[in-house]
Amino acid sequence: MTAITGGLPRAKANLLVLAYVAFIGLGLPFSLMGVAWPTLRAELALPLDALGLLLIATTLGYLVSSFSIARLIYRFGIGSLLILSSLFSAFAFIGYTVAPAWAFIIVLGAVGGFGSGVMDAGLNTYVAAEYNEGQMQWLHACFGLGATLSPLIMTASLALFASWRPAFLFVAAFMILMAICFSVTRKAWKRPNRVVSEAATSSDAERGLMDYHTSLWETLLRLVTWISIFMFMLSSGANSTLGSWSYTLFTEGRGISPQIAGLWTAGFWATFTIGRVVAGLLAHRITLNAMLIGAMALALVGSIGFWWNPIVWAGMAGVLVVGFALAPIFPGLTSGTSQRVGQRHAGNTIGIQVSASSLGGAIVPALAGLLAARISLEIIPVLLTVCVLALLTLYMLSTRVRIAA
Q1: DSSP labels for 46-101?
Q2: CA distance 138 to 191
Q3: To which H or E segment does residue 196 belong?
Q4: Are 162 and 216 part of one and the same domain?
Q5: What is the extent of the structural domain holding 376?
Q6: What is the DSSP-derived secondary structure letter of residue 192?
Q7: Residue 404 is assigned to a structural domain of this protein
Q8: Cα first-last separation, the chain
Q9: Domain final residue, candidates 159, 190, 221
């Protein structure tokens, strides 16, 4: 326990562990609908592309809450928001199992997306404000653990009950348990001080990034904010593209057997989770800047190997390298937000970044699919390489843009 909490005081360590568990819960729904889709689609007699409407609704709910997280924290406090986010998610997942028609599931998707966005952006903001870079990496490693368990939960549900509903009920029960835990600890979660943006004085050093009530538009008018937006879009887009399309490229484009391709695709998520664990262990030994540059450079090497593919195993190994290298980038960039944009704008920017990540995770894989359909599946590693190179370029630029705190 000491290794992942860093010898924190007991009360603060307990909240951090609860945040870790919450992020496991945040990852649990990650692949549920994807694995359930063939069964659910047949049950409701839906077309193949109907899933896109649910993904859009979920993303919209996610964007609304994460984009405005700084104001929500300032107004309600992080503890109360975490309770509500857990209940919103549980309500959506239970609703899926009893919805009489697909239209109701789409509406519930927006509700669940709103809850997930609050928890994701809220805990990212809180951990960035109260804990260190290593603990941020461990937080996101827990999401990887939940995402790894997600398809296993749905697979077990289909195998044991011949139904997709028990899996959603299991995750809903988990979120209700989280709501209870957040209710018990609500007063322990730090509430922001009532500090207005114009009151920046010499006492700023004593204020945390949750203590400011800076105008969202003021934050959006800064160049470094937009650099951060595009970095998060590219990081999440690269990750989602590889996770979504590597199996199809291996099987349909490179003639690899489905069993081997599935194993290596699962290996991507495994190395992704391992990468965050390793980053958490190394965070106090190397600087954040060195870690991020090293991770982006390694991801670039892996993506080029995936693209070049001189032999089958080289291309497949490139996927594992990219998974490992991409892992620490999202939490690392989140931890370094205040260094890039200044303390006054960090709270707003973290929420904006989480929203940008959601957009990138939807737009870039969709673009990959469009290009693959019109050119070739081999365009996917090319797009991945371009994304990683652009990410590295923008990060280097962000270290040189002057911060006006």
Answers
A1: --GGGHHHHHHHHHHHHHHHHHTHHHHHHHH-HHHHHHHHHHHHHHHHHHHHH-SS
A2: 23
A3: strand 195-196
A4: no
A5: 209-398
A6: P
A7: no
A8: 36
A9: 190
- Tell me the backbone φ, ψ of residue 229, rounded to 5 degrees: -55, -50
* Alpha-carbon gap, residue 239 to 365, rounded angstroms: 9
Confidence tier at 232 by pLDDT (50, 70, 90): very high
Task: Tokens 């593919």: give the residue.
Answer: 309
Residue 364: what residue type? V
Residue 405 burial by CB count (10 A; 0-12/13-18/19+): exposed, middle or buried?
Answer: exposed
Distance of alpha carbon 24 from alpha carbon 153, whole angstroms = 13
**Closest by Cα among 28, 20, 40, 67 to 350:** 67
d(CA 113, CA 109): 6
For the entire predicted model, the pTM comes to: 0.75
Residue 38 lies in a domain: yes
Share of the chain above pLDDT 90, in %: 33
- Which alpha helices (H) appear in 131-257, and where do they start and end? 133-161, 165-184, 216-220, 223-248
CA 66 and chain centroid, separation: 11
38, HSE (Cβ side, Cα atoms, 13 Å):
5
Residue at 54 is within a domain: yes
**Can you tell me whether residue 118 is helix, strand or coil?**
helix
Q: Which residue has the tokens 């300032």?
A: 74
- Is pLDDT at 173 greater than 50 in this prediction? yes
- What's the chain's length in residues? 405
Rounded to whole angstroms, the Cα distance separating 369 from 331 reads 27
